[in-house]
Amino acid sequence: MADVANVIFIHWHDLGRHLPCYGARGVVSPTLDRLAADGIVFTDAHATAPLCSPARGSMFTGQYPHRNGLIGLAHHGFAYHPGVRTLPSLLADAGYRTVLFGMQHESTDPTTLGFDTVDVSDSRCDYVTDQAVDWLTTDGVTDQPFFLTAGFFETHRPYPADEYDHADPNSIGVPDFLPDTADVRTDLAGLHGSITKADAAVGRLLDVVERAGLAANTWIVFATDHGLAFPRAKSTLYSEGTGIALIMRPPRGQSGGRRYGGLFSGVDLAPTVLDLLGRPIPDDVDGVSHADAVRGGGPADQVRDAVFTEKTYHDAYDPIRAVRTKDFSYIENYAPRPELVLPLDIADSSSARSLDPQSTIVPRARHELYDLRFDPLERNNLAGDPAYRETAARLAGKLAQWRVETGDELPEDATGTAVAEGFMRAWAARSRDIDPGEEALPSRRPQGSRRELDGGVTVARRAVVPGGDSDT
Predict the structure, then answer these.
(1) Cys-Cys with 67: which of 63, 118, 185, 323 at CB 3.0–4.6 Å?
(2) Are 249 and 33 in contact (CB under 8 A)?
(3) Is residue 147 within 8 Å of residue 97, measured between CB atoms?
């Protein structure tokens, strides 16, 4: 029987698993180090998609992007299907106060996401933490539980040196999937600085949780949305693109301080949280609950035997689907594309200069198969190897079955490409009118008023809903 508990969900951008508790070298993040020591670290968690809106949409709905409708970025016009329920709306129906401060990228109108209180006017960590601290100290301690999400912008590009100190490029470790060059190290130095800045803000938030006496009945959930915004990570279905950090610290007195090695999908977050809180899981949720294993009552490796990932639209139409087990990664590419299709934020990064130029020209294989036991970086494609024929066929069948069962249908290449060209033309037209010095990409702007939102950026207890009636 689960106790009624609060949840504070802290989510960061574009970070993957680039933290010391996952083996990253040279990252200074003492708060998250402590959170990992006290909590449950999920070592094999994966986003459903390697880009922001679809990945976040799955976390908040428990549905795959092609099921909930969010198959591309919200600022390119993609949205939830009518009637899709979100985790905050489900918890609000159960009597929870639901609060959103800072980053969201699931809708151009954040007031429709199911939160009673919304403030997305600024998603930089200090502002978000100030608002969350104020809310927790004035409204947090009551008999009514709450679900509070704090979304930080910092680990998204760009990495502005005037907002935080960059790390010494010579003091950091370069991830194995990237070339060790001066350009990459300089790029990573900015990322490392953003991590340290955001980590300190998390520390302030957790300090208030302690001082307010909330630690005894509050789950702290920390997650990243998808992989690093570096070449061959974000926007790919390799592990560096879909692998995410996920840490859950239970209320004080419950079992923590351990690592959870089972496969975990982004669609599992909502049902797991609902189950931990003793709430029913809707029938239309695609994910599965890991609550028993999280509480320590069941084996982690028996909850899932595979995770499924997808990419449809980013800045281009790039249809890919994949299935991943503990031992293998199998990928199907449904349209002829180069080996790497770089999204705009990576294409103009200094790290892109260190890429092998052939990787953006050489045609991509139709099928990819990697033996993760010997090739964790997914470099040696075994799809055509006779020794792996049965494995490839088994995983292809598993992927095909999942697509049928979840109603996954893709447009033809020409149709999908036309859609992508249309939203990119619209974005380019809007960009001609932006102020000098403004970030061209809406996703690079931390202020809500600058992110091309259709709705308002604040709502207090559903009291002010743009275009709608007041509830109070």
Answers:
(1) 63
(2) no
(3) yes
**pLDDT digit string (tens) for 302-350?**
899 999 999 999 999 999 999 999 999 999 999 999 999 999 999 999 9
Q: Rounded CA gap, 116 and 130, in Å?
A: 18
Tokens coding 298: 């069941």
Phi, psi of 187 (to 5 degrees): -65, -45
Residue-averaged pLDDT of the chain = 92
- pLDDT for res 48: 98
| 224 phi, psi to nearest 5 deg | -105, 160
Closest C-alpha among 115, 86, 62, 93 to residue 269: 62
Give the count of alpha carbons within 13 A of 18, CB side only. Answer: 35
CA distance 57 to 71: 9
Looking only at the bridges linking them, the beta strands covering 40-46 and 317-324 are unpaired
Statement: residue 469 has pLDDT above 70: no
Residue type, 395: L
- pTM for this predicted structure: 0.94
Give dist(CA 3, CA 137) in Å, integer. 22
